[in-house]
Amino acid sequence: MSDPLLQVRDLVVEFPTRRGTLTAVDKVSFDIAPGEVLGVVGESGAGKSLTGTAIINLLEPPGRIGGGEVILQGERIDNLPQEEMRKIRGKRIGMVFQDPLTSLNPLYTIGEQLTETIQTHMKLTDAAARIRAIELLSEVGIPAPESRIDAYPHQFSGGMRQRVVIALALAANPVLVLADEPTTALDVSVQAQIIALLKKTCAEHGAAVMLITHDMGVIAETADRVAVMYAGRIVEIGPVREVIKNAKHPYTDGLMASIPSLTHEAERLAQIEGSMPRLTAIPDGCAFHPRCPQAFDRCRRERPELLDADTTQAACWLYAKEEAVT
Amino acid sequence: MSQATAAATMGVNETPTSDPLIKIEGLTRYFDVSKPLLNRVIERVPRQLLRAVHDVNFSIHAGETFALVGESGCGKSTVARMVAGLIAPSAGSVSFEGVDRAAARSAAEERKIRRRFQMIFQDPFASLNPRWRVDRIISEPIRAFGLAQDKQEIDHQVGELLKVVKLDPADGAKFPHEFSGGQRQRIAIARALSNKPEFIICDEPTSALDVSVQAQILNLMRDLQDEFGLTYLFISHNLAVVRHMATRIGVMYLGKLVEDAPSRELFKDPRHPYTRMLLDAVPDIDMSGRARTPVKGEVPNPINPPSGCTFHPRCPFAFDRCRKEEPALLPVSENHFASCHAVAEGRIESLGAGVQE
Amino acid sequence: MTSGPETRAEFLSKPHGFTTRVLDSDILHSFKQSKLTMVAAFVTLAFIIGAAFAPWIAPHNPFDMASIDLMDSLLPPAWEEGGDSRFPLGTDDQGRDILSGILYGARASLAVGFASVLFAATLGITLGLAAGYLGGTFGTIVMRIADIQLTFPSILIALLIDGVVHGLFEGVSRADTAYWVLIVSIGLSFWVQYARTVRASTMVERNKEYVQAARLIGIPPGLIMLRHVLPNVMGPVLVIATINLAVAIILEATLSFLGVGMPSTQPSLGTLIDIGQDFLFSGEWWITIFPGFALAALVLAVNLLGDWLRDALNPKLR
């Protein structure tokens, strides 16, 4: 097996407040292989977006990395100075956010922004950069890119803007694209197109994708593997088909059952009682135990690490080896 | 069993023989999106109207859940707000038990109809006044309609309502910010039930919630429908949610109702090309590998909609007539309507029963 | 710093009662964090108490002709040569105690300041709420009036009103009308700020769903504005009011200094400075310097409070 492209080890994101430090991301570890699409899914407040922003070192103060390592292609990047990090963002890690307008400057044309990004990271003449920009635009499905390149962001529709952002993210041929809720602001019919585009173009550029979303459907369509987050921790990680169809962690299982289906009819939806704890009240032991139908004594006392659970890994004492149970 | 629940259990494919509870006829709404008068005079541009809703007709029988589904800008929320009486229609009418809401003769009559309506909103963080305690929020309709004699009776009713939505009666003393999104939506539902309405308009009631909480709220809403014999107008962009909740579904596109059918039939045999496209666009979460046609295009600007059938630029079946002539909502089978020339001319085949389960 | 059980326990034991909630609030916390704000609050409070209880605190009553002795006139402060310990900050040309004058003057300044802010806020909030909630032609007219109002400097408005009042009610002495003229003219020059702020927040709140929910059940617009919208637009108003108080005090002092404010029989801080300036060059500096210093301290303190309140109420800066 090839070396992982990105390694995240025991990443902690914390927020100091006057009542104490809140841990929003608690010892999260995962790898992304070159060219792989890793989905990170979770409900709001699970820490999935913070994990992403911590990796690219864009946490907003007072949030900060409280521990752990982020290793990109064998090089530790979580402790780099901002100046170094800025070179990595854009060049080696491309970014696509929920709102395309946060990635696009309204005062410059699409072409100006694309050629600037291209020239920052590659030695190209103005003319060559422009040609490359037009190529990128046509690659992401902008009709008539030769004329649209001189348009401003506001002259594009939401879906078209997100296409431009994808072009921008891929401009410097990054090895990893971080996509944080890239389709949440879009309608279903546009969402379907953007998912397909993101998957196709990243594959063509050989870029791995870290896709952060709350939508299991998007994950099912796009990801190779998926990490499910709950209360700042990864509770289950594994191949997407296994996690979706054959979830091992009681939370993932409950989550999947609670999604209404387009193909099956049900009198009632399965529901997980209660809601995810606030950061200020994360229970001891397994964070999910108060809502878990299968919780037992150990869950209340000890926090489970990710354990091998057949085809996936789940942070759940149900999968503790016999001899480990005391 | 109440009359309402009887109607609900009658089955969706039978034509209810009773009169509808709500009848929407020719409902139309324009929004003025013109520049200010001074700019219009100087720049010599005419007044600009946005056609948000155009000639929408449907009816809802007691005990039913009628869902309006469509993408943003299709006018579904505008319809909801007109039905609720929050904005006035430019044309058309909303009748409740055969009485036109706009034609209510007196303030008392108007109040009587109002008492039987309620609404659940999308954003539980904006739908509760942050400065009010929960008991005051829930009791506002009780006090507005004079449904309780004294403070003690109000407190009692609020306590009961909190229990109905599975919260603690002691929660009444707290402020909204002390609750999670799901709990706030329960508070909003308790408020909506407090004046004992028969008809509740639900405007994307779960789209601001996480999926596990969404399941709780949807289950609660169905339980309440059975318990109190409620009729719902359910607005959503999420087809799976709509399928779970609705007995009948209307699909909207650019301000028009393009298909109207019983829920089961719409999913089994969608006829309008837009409905089919919408269904194909939903991610395949079951990973069933069902055959899907890739979606193309985006919703056009409603200020300047395409001629004829507004869907024609994105429609694989579009032909000359679609570009020129606006199609009408016509029956395709009993109780199933679609507004599409190709369907009317028999060029779009029925998917038939048995294609999907 | 610790995370974990202690933090959780602290959070869970977060109190619910009103007093405890105030004591535990973020506002109070940010207050305690800022030494400067605490000093400013102390100074402001001292002025308010001194002004409110002036008749009991002040060593002399400067308006009681019987107690004034011309023999005591133009005495320097107590620590200067020739000073008298009965008059710690010296006396003016009529033998009035400067310290007592400042206390009574602050009384007049603060009274005019508070009353005019209250007047401006009431007028501005009412018009802003109505303009924002009802919108339409009414809203446009109110805001155009506000725009026109802004083109007049506040001193001009005050001079105008003063002139009109004295033109209308000839024979009425300035002493009787001074308070009201000041309150109305200062108030009128401030209402626009309130109206604009409140209108903007009202237009945001009006479209929120809790207002829709109230409209749905037929609550009349007036009640919706009062019960639902008003409590939710008051945050910024509080900040403006505090900062306005400082400006109102200065404006009052300016008008009094120009001679259209408080008469010398009921002097405010501005009047005292005006009286004192005649003596500045003849060596009796204390007559004008001490009231001037008091005015500066008061205004600075109130301004600092306003700045702090603005930051404390702004969630982005927290």
Q: Any descriptors?
A:
heterotrimer; A: alpha/beta; Rossmann fold; 8-stranded mixed sheet; 4-stranded antiparallel sheet; 23% strand; C: 318 residues; MetI-like fold; 13 helices; elongated; disordered N terminus
Distance between the termini of chain A: 35 Å
Largest sheet strand order of chain A: 6-7-8-3-9-10-12-11
> Structural class of the secondary structure composition of chain C?
mainly alpha
> How much of the residues of chain C is beta strand, in percent?
under 5%
- Broad CATH class of chain C: Mainly Alpha
Instruction: Please identify the oligomeric state.
Output: heterotrimer
Element string of chain C (H = helix, E = strand): HHHHHHHHHHHHH
- Write down how many β-strands of chain C occur, each being a DSSP E stretch of 2 or more residues: 0
Sketch the major β-sheet of chain C: none
CATH third-level topology of chain C: MetI-like fold
CATH superfamily grouping of one domain in chain A = P-loop containing nucleotide triphosphate hydrolases
Describe this structure in words.
The complex is a heterotrimer of chains A (326), B (357) and C (318). Chain A is an alpha/beta fold and 326 residues long. In chain A, 34% of the residues lie in helices and 23% in strands. Chain A has an eight-stranded mixed beta sheet, sandwiched between helices. A four-stranded antiparallel beta sheet of chain A has the order 2-1-4-5, with helices on one face. With 357 residues, chain B is of the alpha/beta class. Chain B has one domain: P-loop containing nucleotide triphosphate hydrolases (Rossmann fold), CATH 3.40.50. Chain B has an eight-stranded mixed beta sheet with strand order 6-7-8-3-9-10-12-11, with helices on both faces. In chain B, strands 2-1-4-5 form a four-stranded antiparallel beta sheet. The radius of gyration of chain B is 22 Å and the shape is globular. Chain B starts with a helix and ends in a 13-residue tail after the last helix. The N terminus and C terminus of chain B are likely disordered. The radius of gyration of chain C is 24 Å and the shape is elongated. Chain C is mainly α and 318 residues long. Chain C has a single domain, classed as MetI-like fold (Orthogonal Bundle). The N terminus of chain C is likely disordered. Classes of the chains: A alpha/beta (326), B alpha/beta (357), C mainly alpha (318). Chains in contact: A-B, A-C, B-C. At the A-C interface, strand 2 of A face helix 1 of C.
